[in-house]
Amino acid sequence: MNVVGLISGGKDSLYNLVCCSKDGHNITALAHLIPLKKQNSFMYQSAGFELIPSIAKCMEIPLIQHQIKKPVNVDDLTYTYNSNDEVEDLYELLQEAKSKFPNINAVSCGAIISNYQKNRLEHVCKRLNLQILTYLWGKNQKELLQNMIRDDLNAIIVKIASFGLKKSHVGKTIKEMYNYLELMSEKYGLNICGEGGEYETITLDCSLYKYKIIIEEYEIIQHTYDVICPVFLLKPLKWKLEKKL
């Protein structure tokens, strides 16, 4: 199938594309929604979004980006059409992808357990006659993270928002963090893949990249000052692409 990859830049959306490629699908384009400042969305990742155009360059695949313009107006698990909901920004994004690349007939999505996300994407794709490819859906999260590491997906943590995760963990790779995440999962029930919003990542390298991203300068910002669960973000300031051998 000819696939448009919905990407946040995180490990899940990129690894699902790796799975698409392994299964023989053609990745035709990438699509991304630029977040609103200070918007908290259950649909879209915001941390690390500055690197999205560079990810497209690393893959040498066309990128379509839209700014999110609409707020969340339907927060039920099941989505019912609302012209002023953020889901309609996704519809317009994929509609443009189909217009620019008429051969596209499938969408790649890195959802693992979020029915909230999956239900909304299904609603949009049904209207656009697109098939959804979700290779990660329902998979054991521990095994999934192990597989990402095994397949040399290099993703770093760019946001933490969970008890047990610390400022010092921001900027660490999933490989460096695996044992600690496994421990936190066993002790406190943390979703080891971050599906509960515990952490977010950005993918600096994977098998689909012809270049790898090297972050040269960054700052770590404290977003909330909760005593038990403070939120920290990594904001890239300067980076470069390095050709892979």
TrEMBL record:
Task: Specify the Diphthamide synthase domain's residue ranges.
Answer: 1-230
| InterPro entries from the UniProt entry | Diphthami_syn_dom, DPH6/MJ0570, Rossmann-like_a/b/a_fold
Pathway as given in its UniProt record: Protein modification; peptidyl-diphthamide biosynthesis
A Gene Ontology MF term for this entry?
Answer: diphthine-ammonia ligase activity
Q: What class of enzyme is it?
A: ligase
Which Pfam families did the record assign? Diphthami_syn_2
Q: Which reaction does it catalyse?
A: diphthine-[translation elongation factor 2] + NH4(+) + ATP = diphthamide-[translation elongation factor 2] + AMP + diphosphate + H(+)
Q: Name one GO biological process term.
A: protein histidyl modification to diphthamide
Coiled-coil stretches noted in the UniProt entry, renumbered to this chain: none
Q: Which UniProt keywords apply?
A: ATP-binding, Ligase, Nucleotide-binding
What EC number(s) is this enzyme filed under? 6.3.1.14
Q: Name the chain's protein.
A: Diphthine--ammonia ligase
Instruction: Name the source organism.
Output: Plasmodium relictum
